Sequence to fold (1069 residues):
Amino acid sequence: MAETKKKKKIIITKVVDGIDTEVEIEVDDVDGPQWLPKGATRLIGKPIQRLDGPDKVTGKARYPVDVRLPGMLWGRWVPSAHANARIVSVDLGPARRLAGVKVVIELKHAEDVVRFHGDPIAAVAATTPEIADDAVHAIKVQYDVLPHAITVEQALAPGAPSLRANQNGNISRRNEQGNKAEVAEALEGCAHVVELELSTPIKPHVCFETHGVVVDYRGGDSATIHASTQGVFTISQDAAKWLGIPVGNVETNCQHMGSGYGSKFSLGKDGEVGCRLAKEAKLPVHMLLTRRDEFLAAGNRSASIQKIKLGCDNQGKLIAIDAEQIRLGGLGRGSQPGHPYVYKVEKVYRDVYSVHTNIDSSRAWRAPGHPQASFGMESVVDELSYKAGIDGVEFRKRNLEDPMHRRHLDEGAAAIGWHRRNRVPGQGAGAIKRGIGCAVGVWGGGGRPICEVDVIVQRDGSVTCRCGTQDLGTGTRTYMAMITAEELGLEVADINVQIGRSIYGNANPSGGSTTVPSLAPAVKHAAYQTREELSKRAAAVLGVKPEDVRVQVGKFAGGSRSLTWKQVAALVPPEGLSLRGVWQADLASRTTHPAQFAEVEVDTETGHVRVIKIVAVQDCGLCLNPLTTESQLQGGVIQSMSYALLEARVDDPTLGMCLNPNMEDYKVAGTTEMPEEVQIIIDDKDDRPVVGIGEPPVIPTQSAIANAVYNAIGVRITSLPITPDKVLMALEQEGRRA
Amino acid sequence: MNAFELVKVRTVDQAVGLLPTGRRRNDYARVKILAGGQDLLSELKERIIEPDSVIDLKSVPGLDTVSHNDRDGLTIGALVTLTDLAENDVVRERFPGIAEAAASVGTPQIRNVGTVGGNLCQRPRCWYYRSKDIICLKKGGAVCYAKDGLNKYNAILGAGPSWIVHPSDLAPMLQALGAKVTIVGPRGTREAGLDEFFITPDISATRETDMLANEVVTKVTVPNSPVAGRSTYVKFRERGSNDFAVAAVAAAVERAGGTIRQARIVLGGVAPVPWHVPDAEAALQGKRADDATLQAAADAALEGAEPLAHNAYKIPLTKNLVKRAIRKLMA
Fold:
């Protein structure tokens, strides 16, 4: 007789290319593992240092780029020197003749078109990186240079090159919503209206470790791919295809990886080239991009242009918005949620579309589209609050529906000292002026059923917690050990955590802030089942019922007796006890509500902006480990501070070439740019289970900084990054107007 | 980088003998001198230069010392590192602006290796020049792409037909204090003031100094002067942790009570050479450093500036830095 299980519907987050989408699914409504309430835990929620921290800081941790194999060759590719050109010829001969060059392959042939500066044309594998570099240099490419489009104007001009196959012109994914005339009328009736044109630049990911793989293949029908990846399970299938061997014979291995931020979700062109070179050489190939190739051809955060008109009534209630939003993802689609971002506005008209240019395709980038949309929306909201004469925090609270946002704004305002802000922007005396600003964001960050976690107990008491997942730098090993140890009455150091191999249990790619909410429940489930099974076995020895066995530190107790962990472990079968955990809907939650405040100092004589302090208020459901959580929030804040003040890919519109594909001209914030303080306030008041917080901290920072700059100088900088030239010229213009 | 012959020399004359005698662009490019290598290596790695041989000067003894006496002033060997210069007690006390300029270069790692000679002889940072896919005027091409391109960091003074800015932090400060470089060539040793040593692009668009291809800078001498002890280098950069100057002011004054007896001002980051501004110095002479005087000096310093499409901000910026530098020296 079929058993009827009680079902319930829940919403989960499904990630495609790092962009999350909400999906409703049905799951069993049964008893099972539950997180312990706060205060009842021994390890979870406690600040525990990351297990692999010492390995990382001493250099012991081996990243894919560090892999060295006997006979290994070094791969490099030939990047296009032009943004749009037809290949006339590729002369591989000189490269082939160089001693030490083992393989040379063509990626583009005569008559093929290269579509962006840096587009790979040919590739080489040689016995040293220097010889590979010489070989790349020796390959002569003849181009028939075609007209290119780098700017929106160039892309939309008559006669512009059509950059997307089967598509008319360079506009795609147009999404128009609402009634423009109706919104225009509503704006007419508003007590206050602001109109701004805002822009954000292309921001490459600037991963610590560049993209790529080390392909361990020596002929035959099996291979191991050492991949710098956000998804261990996104590699093998394509690698097998390029190597021409069965997928089941290809293992992907990623023990440590040097960041991805959304750009490392597949084998990619670099991985493809690594596999093709290895296949031809029948030798291992080290194919990780040079920093220059990384800048040119490994993806980026799309730029944006946002023309927004926003109006409110005399109570500060948002009435109408008209937004034209352009996504500039180069050859890619780009990302940008439609306005109004986060805020509630009565009447909405928006026209969102992508414009394509001869620049490497955008990829997912930590909270795809959200920082751009936040900068647009928060700039007009901020401007309108001043115009309406309503306190900025109060104004925002009146137009945010989620009580969590309102609570976070109050907490952040208290922490930064919001009362110290300039009532009149720019009112401060002297050349160096201070200002305070704020902004909010929203992110999903839920889990889904995909992870398979094995907890294995051996008779000698050793415990392994194993899953094929990757650690993107968030401390995955550490919380896997914490959850397992807590459940079994052990210490973190007692758990042997094994991750990063595709021969282990399945796991999701780390995108959309879904790793913790997908993985932690499965770890908990595996550990819970192990505890249940061990309790059963211990109960028999202790002479109590299994449900009366209590797990204590280092022992299982029942009645007046107890067994040490070693004694409990001795009860498992000779081959060990291995139990697999899967996702538990009740153990994960979704949606977070970041709010951030920034205090800045603007030197009006040089245009330099210094960030004094950032307060980041973040709900994260059950906080597994406050230390790694704070690290992640600080990292996000600093990354977006750098976006606010320094970072921008620069392309010459006439030459169609990127001018700053290096770490000197592409400026990333360094030690002296750091704020005096990044104060993290973790909000776990609402007792939700785990939520992912990888992405939310990067969303509001640049907006809060931009609003703080306005508060300091009384002039709004409408394009990121807020560099000294923009500040000085804006002040000059303002001075001339005054 | 390309494969080249690396030659370690024991004497400067040996180096001179190995350098090409011609004066064509290629003669300057065929053989390069290696000191700290902080600029040379990046040029090699990007294949902006592909020399046949590189002469390592570091094996020449005696070029890495700083000395001072009352008669000759300060003598700085070409191989003195920027860190050693910045931390030298005599320099810090008697030529504080030089210590400040040296300390403002790059990062600690660069300063630990980079040398004074290399800092003066380094090539420009213009991103058109540094792009391996662009053959600009400075690399022997026909066009200075900065002129009509993305020229936010380029020159506003003394430019054309090339719009580079000179990247050195030391050069403006040394020039402000009347320094001379000692150059050894095939016909012996000569001395040149920094105002003669650096040449504007109308003289040569592909070089920044008047050196022959077979000359080597061996030392820099800075005279004792009434202004040296009250000198400062005010550098503005976008990224404090590691950046070249967007604009900089090397200034020195001799005070007489509250008035300025004499002043020296050389601008950095705004022209293809360190930009000496005698009119600004004259505007300060015999005056108190009040707002009107500072404004007059700042205006005089930027007299004749011709901004391109994206670098007009350098005018107010540099004016403000001039005022800041003089205020600091008169405080």
